[in-house]
Amino acid sequence: MIRLAVLLGLCVADPSLACEPPLNKADAIDNRIRVGPQCEYDNAAPDDNYLQVNGKPVVDIGGGKIGQRQSSSDSCFFAQQMMFVDCSTAELIVIDGINEDSGIAGMGAQSVTKLQRAGGGPIALGPKTTVAELARISDRHGFDYKLGADIYQRVEARNRVDPYCGCKLYYPGSAGAGR
């Protein structure tokens, strides 16, 4: 009988309950960023919006270039970004993923899979890829992007992502490693 009442309660519950952002209490987000040996990280914060932000291990693309898939989420939205850094010039670009249907009403999702050529997109990363080239491709296809490391500087140091971590790992004598 209790199971039936619970099931009926779920059927009539307000659907927005499934996708409400968490409370932004400081004690709920007061965890220092954790960085692993391949520059993977969690508990970072991109700005003051209290999203959960994580980064996959950095990939050495070759030619002084690195890439990293980053993701941020709250209970109603999941977004991926592709970060590309030219360690020799310390230039970087962060390209937002493409909006996709999450299949859940009220929930948004952005994925970087379809940005890349392997996923049917226009971007192929290689040793000769440049930040300027990725910006042109993004402009041509309507992808949102940000240039430069300033986007990471707005966060207090304890939760700040080091976008040049991969440069220090793979290209220690580069301009990016010196940042």
Brief sketch in words of this structure:
Helix content is 18%, strand content 28%. It has helices at residues 2-12, 131-141, 150-153, 165-170; strands at residues 34-35, 41-44, 52-55, 59-62, 65-73, 77-86, 91-96, 98-101, 108-111, 145-147.
SSE map:
Blueprint: H1 2-12, E1 34-35, E2 41-44, E3 52-55, E4 59-62, E5 65-73, E6 77-86, E7 91-96, E8 98-101, E9 108-111, H2 131-141, E10 145-147, H3 150-153, H4 165-170
Parallel strand pairs: 6-9
Antiparallel strand pairs: 1-2, 2-3, 3-5, 4-5, 5-6, 6-7, 7-10, 8-9
Keywords: Signal
Overall mean pLDDT = 80
Number of self-contained structural domains: 1
Which band does the percent of strand residues land in?
Answer: 25-35%
Helix-strand category:
alpha+beta
Helical fraction equals 10-25%
* Total DSSP E strands: 10
Contiguous helical run count = 4
Morphology call: globular
Quote the distance from N terminus to C terminus. Answer: 64 Å
> Largest beta sheet, briefly?
10 strands, mixed
C-alpha Rg, in Å? 19 Å
Order of helices and strands: HEEEEEEEEEHEHH
Uncertain segments: 4-17
